[in-house]
């Protein structure tokens, strides 16, 4: 085995705590290199995630590991806004009479004659089941409520009050559309997950488009 680096990771966004643990890391890594006869110039020391790299510069050491800040997901540093959006399109429209049930377990019943839009996205794509009957999406710059339980590849939203909805139209699940936006806090509250649990799935389960 060839040792090329020594690292640690800080658990909290607290600069004073980071500095204290940084001192411990330096002491421990120095001891380890001495005991193992490792040359300092051949070892990469790294401890800094996004928060630490930006807020405790003395902890940058030989390299940094920025993650969330690259996506604008770092609440302590709002000067880096979110650059991520999660979108789909309307796949079909359905006219349902009053008292119709929607989705698995029939958790939603229409209270009026309704127009529902089927979206080709579900929990296998990173849109959790818990979004059902709670979350909203953006269509034509307006909010549409998710109705029924989100299934594996399908989500249904109520577009009865939104004019001009057609198959193929863009739907924003997270991000901004016209003057409306779905924010990080809204996604986390509805999904009962932290935001990285969502966007790490989005990036592996769906096509990615990089916009300059």
TrEMBL record:
- Pfam families listed in its UniProt record: Ala_racemase_C (PF00842), Ala_racemase_N (PF01168)
Per UniProt, the enzyme's principal EC class comes to: isomerase
GO MF annotation terms:
alanine racemase activity; pyridoxal phosphate binding
Q: Which GO terms describe its cellular component?
A: cytosol
Q: SMART domains attached here?
A: Ala_racemase_C (SM01005)
Write down the EC number. Answer: 5.1.1.1
Pinpoint the Alanine racemase C-terminal domain residues.
Answer: 83-211
Example GO biological process: D-alanine biosynthetic process
The alphabetical list of record keywords is: Isomerase, Pyridoxal phosphate
- What cofactors are annotated for this protein? pyridoxal 5'-phosphate
Name the UniProt record assigns to this protein: Alanine racemase
Q: Which gene encodes it?
A: alr
């Amino acid at each position: 085995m060839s040792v090329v680096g020594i690292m640690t990771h800080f658990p909290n966004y607290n600069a004073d705590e980071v500095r204290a643990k940084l001192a411990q890391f330096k002491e421990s890594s120095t001891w380890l290199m001495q005991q193992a006869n490792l040359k300092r110039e051949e070892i990469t020391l790294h401890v800094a995630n996004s928060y630490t790299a930006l807020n405790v510069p003395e902890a940058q050491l030989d390299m940094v590991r920025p993650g969330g800040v690259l996506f604008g997901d770092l609440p302590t540093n709002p000067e880096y806004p979110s650059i991520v959006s999660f979108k789909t399109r309307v796949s079909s429209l359905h006219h349902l009479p009053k008292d119709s049930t929607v989705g698995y377990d029939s958790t939603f019943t229409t209270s009026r004659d309704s127009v529902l839009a089927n979206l080709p996205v579900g929990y296998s794509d990173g849109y959790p089941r818990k979004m059902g009957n709670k979350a909203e999406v953006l269509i034509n710059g307006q909010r549409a409520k998710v109705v029924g339980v989100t299934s594996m590849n399908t989500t249904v939203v109520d577009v009865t009050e939104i004019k001009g909805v057609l198959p193929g139209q863009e739907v924003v699940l997270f991000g901004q559309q016209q003057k409306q936006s779905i924010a990080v806090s809204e996604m986390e509250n509805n999904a009962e997950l932290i935001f990285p649990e969502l966007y790490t799935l989005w990036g592996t389960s769906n096509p990615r488009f990089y916009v300059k």
